[in-house]
Amino acid sequence: QSTVIQEPSLSVSPGGTVTLTCGLSSGSVSTGHYPSWYQQTPGHAPHILTYNTNSRPSGVPDRFSGSILGNKAALTITGTQTDDEADYYCFLYMGEDIHTVI
């Protein structure tokens, strides 16, 4: 059974660009895993940023973009802002199992 792997933390200066990745302990992430990314700030429920690799719900700024980079899913945030400081969670569809990192 694969484990989802994300960076424990990343730092970026305001206005910069940062890419978060989401990999599997065995195998590669593909569009068939339908990667989605959620953002959670303290005291608030998670809200979705991207789904189905690179789709964004209405209201999510286009500075958040999802992709596949090599064998991982990725979330790139451009023009970072101070209120982007949050926890970010990747979800992957794994057949009957849903995997995430908390």
Automatic annotation (TrEMBL):
<dbReference type="InterPro" id="IPR050150">
    <property type="entry name" value="IgV_Light_Chain"/>
</dbReference>
<dbReference type="InterPro" id="IPR036179">
    <property type="entry name" value="Ig-like_dom_sf"/>
</dbReference>
<dbReference type="InterPro" id="IPR013106">
    <property type="entry name" value="Ig_V-set"/>
</dbReference>
<dbReference type="InterPro" id="IPR007110">
    <property type="entry name" value="Ig-like_dom"/>
</dbReference>
<feature type="domain" description="Ig-like">
    <location>
        <begin position="1"/>
        <end position="90"/>
    </location>
</feature>
<dbReference type="InterPro" id="IPR013783">
    <property type="entry name" value="Ig-like_fold"/>
</dbReference>
<dbReference type="InterPro" id="IPR003599">
    <property type="entry name" value="Ig_sub"/>
</dbReference>
<dbReference type="Pfam" id="PF07686">
    <property type="entry name" value="V-set"/>
</dbReference>
<protein>
    <submittedName>
        <fullName>Ig lambda chain V region 4A</fullName>
    </submittedName>
</protein>
